[in-house]
Design goal:
Elements (H helix, E strand, L loop, with lengths): L4 H15 E4 L2 E4 L8 E6 L4 H10 L5 E7 L22 H4 L3 E2 L9 E4 L3 H13 L3 E4 L25 H8 L4 E4 L5 H10 L5 E10 L11 H4 L10 H12 L2 E3 L2 E3 L4 E8 L6 E9 L5 H10 L3 H4 L10 E4 L7 H4 L8 E9 L3 E8 L3 H17 L17
Parallel strand pairs: 3-4, 3-6, 4-5, 6-7, 7-8, 9-12, 14-15
Antiparallel strand pairs: 1-2, 9-13, 10-11, 13-16, 15-16
Bound molecules: NADP nicotinamide-adenine-dinucleotide phosphate.
């Protein structure tokens, strides 16, 4: 998959320069293209996140979904025989695919994982050992010191953990994870505020029902109610954010020192996690500074124009009643973070509301963007399939 960190850096510079073009003095981003779509597999294809993967992969310019796996309950049937729970039709080319059991070594090199965490830990490790590149949503390996936990706009440099991962685990393949669905919004927002050195943050979430998978929370518990607890979620927000904002060093990732206190609640919203955030910054800033930092925040996915990258990762709202899940969560393909109500906080200095799509930016879309980054950085074994030299066009 990769020779060493130097090689990785060389390829990174190579792809960056391909995307950097100048016409009449203006920067012009040239999207990378692959010569032939890369075959991908999907573990946990039948779940709530799995179906989002199927939807997003159906028209993906780089990836072609050819192999599906789930539990013994689903295996042996055609995907189209199983319940499809998303709006819009099941893509015809997927309906006829058989659902396999989880058998490491079977399926394409690149596999996405939307597995239940109860099985993801062991299964993903076995797939990576067998030479697969696993791009996972599950929590099982996120905090492993040699597993990158990546938001491509925030910490693409954490992919430098992969050579060490291969050495320590003895895997022929690799494992890369994306954060918990509530973490991604907080980490993106705090990353945009890095110029002002976030010191402490308090966050209270209002998380959508779809975040609990299918069938999720019982309807009689969820309707017209707020459930003030989500198992394990507060710790994930506090620790994953520090890892994502942290620095890669010899022993792994040195966690960012920002102290985070999280409270998480489940609310009767279908899709979209809202979070009320207060933050203390070490550096002085005005409201205009913060708004500009959010609106101008950008990263490697935008520089490379990766297929799933929103043009603007953070969209700011001026309306006092925005962002709202029903009005805003689907815009920008569900990949943008929405920030509104930026105002002074009498306790910590600043506060704001954020909203992100838990099934897209917080799950399937996050993993797709990670996989696109791996391809753009030429980190798959089989990259002979991909002709990044054909990038210009
Ligand atoms: P889900 O709807 O419960 O789907 C779970 C998937 O795992 C199904 O495909 C299921 O297959 C499979 N599975 C369960 N037990 C299995 C077993 N023993 N062997 C093989 N496969 C098994 O859950 P989800 O909401 O899609 O979440 C999937 C993963 O993504 C979880 O790790 C979750 O924490 C994470 N995640 C979810 C969200 C979100 O917003 N929902 C966001 C970020 C991350 P069958 O259908 O055959 O049982």
């Amino acid at each position: 998959m990769m020779e060493n960190a130097d090689w990785l850096e060389t390829r990174r510079k190579g792809t960056e320069s391909m995307a950097d073009d100048r016409e009449n003095g203006a920067r012009h981003v040239v999207p990378l293209r692959v010569a032939r779509r890369i075959e991908v597999g999907l573990l946990g294809a039948t779940g709530a996140v799995g179906q989002q993967f199927v939807r997003l992969l159906a028209e993906h310019p780089w990836f072609r979904l050819t192999w599906l796996a789930a539990s013994e309950r689903s295996a042996g049937r055609r995907y189209g025989e199983l319940p499809w729970r998303l709006a819009g039709p099941l893509p015809a080319e997927i309906a006829g695919l058989p659902v396999h059991t989880l058998r490491p070594g079977a399926g394409p090199e690149l596999v996405f994982s939307a597995l239940d965490a109860a099985v993801a830990g062991e299964c993903e490790a076995e797939f990576a050992a067998q030479g697969h590149c696993v791009v996972s949503n599950a929590r099982s390996h996120r905090m492993d010191p040699c597993v990158p936990l990546v938001i491509p706009e925030v910490n693409p440099e954490h992919l430098a953990l992969l050579p060490r991962q291969r050495e320590e685990k003895g895997w022929r393949g690799a494992l890369v994870t994306n954060p918990n669905c509530a973490t991604v919004g907080l980490a993106l927002a705090l990353a945009a505020l890095r110029p002002f050195s976030p010191r402490r943050a308090v966050v209270t979430t209002l998380q959508a029902l779809s975040g609990a998978g299918y069938p999720g929370v019982a309807s009689v518990d969820a309707a017209a109610n707020v459930i003030p607890w989500i198992d394990g979620e507060e710790e994930k927000l506090e620790t994953e954010t520090q890892k994502i904002l942290g620095t890669v060093e010899a022993g792994g990732v040195r966690a960012h020192p920002v102290a985070i206190s999280a409270q998480t609640t489940r609310v009767p919203v279908l899709d979209g996690h809202t979070e009320a955030v207060s933050v203390e910054l070490a550096e002085p800033a005005t409201r205009e500074d913060l708004l500009a930092a959010f609106a101008q925040f950008s990263g490697e996915p935008q520089a490379l124009a990766l297929p799933s990258a929103p043009r603007q990762p953070i969209v700011t709202h001026e309306g006092a009643d925005r962002p709202q899940p029903r009005l805003d969560v689907e815009s920008h393909g569900g990949m943008a973070l929405h920030v509104g109500r930026v105002r002074p906080c009498p306790v910590l200095g600043w506060k704001f509301i954020l909203l992100s799509h838990n099934m897209v930016r917080g799950a399937a879309g996050a993993a797709l963007l990670n996989a696109e980054l791996l391809v753009a950085r030429a980190l798959l074994n089989s990259l002979g399939q991909v002709d990044l030299a054909a990038a210009r066009g």
